[in-house]
Amino acid sequence: MAEPWDSHLSASDREIYEITGYGAGPGWPARPALLVIDVTLDFCGPEGASAAEAARQTRTACGPRAWTAVPKIATVIAAARAAERPVIYTRRSEARLAKRRAMNARANEDRPEGNEIVAPLAPRPGDLITGKSKPSAFWGTGLVEKLSDMGCDGVILTGGTTSGCVRASAVDAFNHDIPAILVADAVFDRFEASHAMSLFDLQAKYAGLCTAAEAAQRLRAM
Questions:
Q1: Domain-located, residue 212
Q2: Does some domain include residue 10?
Q3: Is residue 211 one of the residues assigned to a domain?
Q4: Per the structure, how many domains does the chain have?
Q5: Which one of 94, 114, 166, 211 is at 20 to 30 Å from 132 when CA atoms are compared?
Q6: What pLDDT was estimated at residue 110?
Q7: What is the chain's alpha carbon radius of gyration, rounded to the nearest angstrom?
C-alpha cells in the first residue's frame, strides 16, 4: 500500500531506510491515553471552505485536510471512551493567545473564540482539557505527571498539526520514555509535504503508526 511519503523519497532515501532498520516502532500501550491535539476552530477553519479560503479567513487554518481528519478522530475518541481510557484535549493557553509571535505576519488576527474545540469533537464531562504555551502537549503542562496519576503507559496521538504540535508532542513523549502511537489518518497539516515527511520521520524514529480503524479496534479489544 502506498504511503503518504512515497513520492517525497529518493531511491537513496529508500535504500538507507531499509539498511538502517528504522521504523520498528514501539509496542502498543496496554493502558494508553488519547491526546486530541489542537483541533480548534482556528486550526480547522470554516467547514466546507477550500484550503486557500480557510487560510484567508484564519491564518492557522488547515481547511479540508483538518475536516477530513475530524470523523477519523471522532472514531478514535468513541473507542477510547468505550474502553474507559482517558481523553485529553489540548489547545493554546491564554498566555499564548496573548503573546503575538514574530514568526507570522498575521499573528495579530488571533481571536480567543477560535481556540474552541470544534463541535463534532466537543469534550464531555470527565475529559481533560489542557492549555499549552508551546507546541508540545508536554511542555509546561504537567502531562507526564497526569499520565502517571491515571496509570497510563503510553499515548495515542491525533489532531494537528502533523509537522508542528503533533510532532513536538511525539518527540517529547519519546524524550520521557512514553510510547506514542500516531494515528496517521487522524492527524492533519496545512502543507501536504510537511504532513507526509513528518509522518515518515516520526514513524521512523519516534512513534508507532496506525490508522483510525486500527486504533479503534485496539481500543475496543481492551
A1: yes
A2: no
A3: yes
A4: 1
A5: 211
A6: 63
A7: 17
